[in-house]
């Protein structure tokens, strides 16, 4: 057991805390630090997803409040790399990190298979570093600065910089703290306005992945989630047929080549978008999720909400009455839509009935946009108010043409309903007798 272990700073990488221990303990060789903290020299304490955390906790001073969960969730890249994995996979990585055997971790996390390259050097923000020196008297490696790619510090809106400290994934350990000699704090690169907004959004969402706790979901959840969203946004038919070209075009229209390169994503690549919009059979790097979510005007929270993924081809209530004689004309008063499928085209057909006047119409879906709610395919019932209005106009002796104009229908409809009204009257009279 060791006597003193440094208290981790906010968002500090465990690797950084161990490096600080190494310096404070006055150890000359890394292997002595490994022996102190893990009880053995053969541990694979990698920078991002280290193992041996169970052994480390056992060697900590008795009165410590630190435990496995705090280390893994607050001081490693675990939350970022496992959030989109199914529960069993995330759990398996978690257990590997607690165990002394970390060989499988990178394979399991999908980092190796991903085309998104890991950074070569540990990274830092010059302004954060200056603040840390002022607050804590020293620098440390921030977890958030180690996301892959060429990213920014969202707090200071500066580009992150490469330090001189190599990230090694092998067992060749070197515990090195950031200092003014391996990090140049003078070169502050401000970001230009155009590259700022989108990149900042993506990085903020990535920060959410690191800092909040999301419930892992099976692949089927994301399949359903994205399918639902693509239908809602019009990039897939109601049946789920993805409009791949429209989707690709809109996606690459939104994201600049520069932004994608900063995230290590190949500009113009369409295969992953195709895979992503169909059934999820494997995990995708979090960046693909973040880009797609941002593209769909959603944040990370939405991807983990437990909701039903039932698409509504006519949007959500309420819908307007389309009877010009109704006091609720074009007001959103209809609460319910009944949907059936067109036998021929299989498209959804919604039927809407006004509670005020009984006017009832259908519309073929799905609605491409909100303004579409003022269109109808067929009138199923004109409702009692309209029929009463027709009778009043007929009684006034107006021409069929004029009545048709006032009621917004053709003259044939007026003639047809006049006959119907007469029939109804006759029926009513005969039943009175
Ligand atoms: Zn900063
Ligand atoms: Zn109405």
From TrEMBL:
Pfam short name (any one): TniQ
Superkingdom of the source species: Bacteria
Record-annotated Transposon Tn7 transposition protein TnsD C-terminal domain positions: 206-431
Ranges where the TniQ domain occurs: 5-158
InterPro entries according to UniProt: TniQ, TnsD_C
Protein name listed in UniProt: Tn7-like transposition protein D
Protein's organism: Sporolactobacillus inulinus
